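Dear colleague,

Thank you for sharing your sequence with our group. We've completed the structure prediction you requested, and as agreed, I am returning the results in plain text so they can be pasted directly into your records. Please verify that the sequence below matches your submission; if there's any discrepancy, let me know and we will rerun it promptly.
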Amino acid sequence: MLAGDTPVTRIKFMLTDTAMMQKISTSLQERYPLLRRSSLARKANRILLRTSRPRTFKDYNKVFCVGWLRTGTSSFGRSMRRLGFKHCGWDPDVFHDWYEKGKIEKVIRYARHFESFDDLPWNHIDIFEKLDAAYPNSKYVLLERDSDEWFTSFNKHRIGVGMKSVLDEREEYIREYERRNRFIKDYFDGARSDRLLVMNVIGGDGYEKLCPFLDLPIPNDPFPHRNKSK
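Please find the predicted structure tokens below.
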């Protein structure tokens, strides 16, 4: 045992090691799926992740994925974890108990504990401008895919989780999907353009496009694809 290497110092090191804490959290959720469903377990997981401080980066603050549902957000989240980011994805408590009840400032403050984000509420266009103000110089990733393919996957997902089909509202949903993507692109047009990356994960974009944007080396591992639905 090295000098100063005690159980207390090892615990302190573990709690400040972002990558280790992220691995512990991910491993627990993969090993015990009920942790993702239990509100109490999710709260404990949030406390666990908050024990380690997020890193600071030289050229940017945080990384927010603003792609809409069924555009590859799960793949993006897994890729960021593999790259070592302290990542925050879908959390029904944050979305339902805070965002939907108008506790936006609480959502904004919660973001300080993480380095990257995807899914609700982080990809809502009515919140990302506030996130941009609270965490200046952050980078944003817009995930896109063919509009018709997106709708087919989106509607299939709705049916799969017990919601009704919106096939008869196809044109309206596609119009709204394209409108939100244009809004995001317009927001970052001009002086902010270097802070937005547009990717088509479903179409094959991966680390070769994401890593240069984040000033990171491209890993040898293939880009993860989860929940891929045609």
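Summary note from our side: Strands lie at 63-65, 87-88, 116-117, 139-143, 196-199.

Kind regards,
the structure core
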